[in-house]
Amino acid sequence: MKKRHLVPVVAALAGALAVPAAVAAPAAPAASTTSTTSTVSSTTGTRSLASVLLADGNRFDRNWYDYDIVTEAVLAVLAAKPDSPVGLLTRGEVPLTAFLPNDRAFQVLAADLTGRWYDKESQVFDALAGAVGTDALEAVLLYHVVPGAPITSRDALRSDSASLATALPGASITVDVLSRWLRLIRLVDNDRNDADPLVNPRALDLNKGNRQIAHGLVLVLRPKDL
After folding, report:
1. Which parts of 51-171 are beta strand (E)?
2. pTM (2 decimals)?
């Protein structure tokens, strides 16, 4: 069993100051084991998360707290697998909630998987693509998506212990509300060996008012022991 990598985890938590961006994608609607969602209104906006994700120009930069790496991961999966359910992120009429790891979160993951700390976002992306491959990358992205009516931060903070069915078949995540007052939420994933991600309280309700909503993460959700 692997030991938790505390130094990069602390580095990721220290940078919890993300600003707008967005997320991955869903498959066919799947019900949460415990409902946390509000009803989708017929007047809810249909701006897709893809349009938010690409809003900053689709390029790597020196800001580790935006979402360039997840953007490139989505594009890479769709280039290799055009029919992937990840493509539903372009369909703003499809309701879903996505949990969006920032670039620092992927830097931590790459360091954990390869044993090397990469200094550039492009290096992190290349390392992950080489280490896990397209199919695993697709699975990780789908594991960050919960199909169905959007879960706002208000919903989530009232949903301690809720189990959310993700777009990755058979895989779920559990909501652990650490503090409603501080708006601290942990998501418990299926990897028993590494720290579970916190939702970034400064990156909640991205794309709010639309059928596709996202919340930032400071670590990457893992669908299995990696």
Report:
1. 96-101, 145-147, 163-165
2. 0.83
- 10 φ, ψ (degrees, to nearest 5): -60, -40
Q: How far apart are CA 58 and CA 68, in angstroms?
A: 7
- The gap from C-alpha 131 to its chain's centroid, in whole angstroms, comes to 19
Which CATH number does 6-217 carry? 2.30.180.10
DSSP state of 197: P
- pLDDT bucket at 202, cuts 50 / 70 / 90: very high
Beta bridge partners of 83: none
pLDDT digits (tens, 9 = 90+) for 7-18: 333 333 334 333
- At 39, which amino acid appears? T
193-216 exposure pattern, b = at least 16 Cβ within 10 A, e = fewer: ebbbbbbbbebbbbbeebbbbbbb
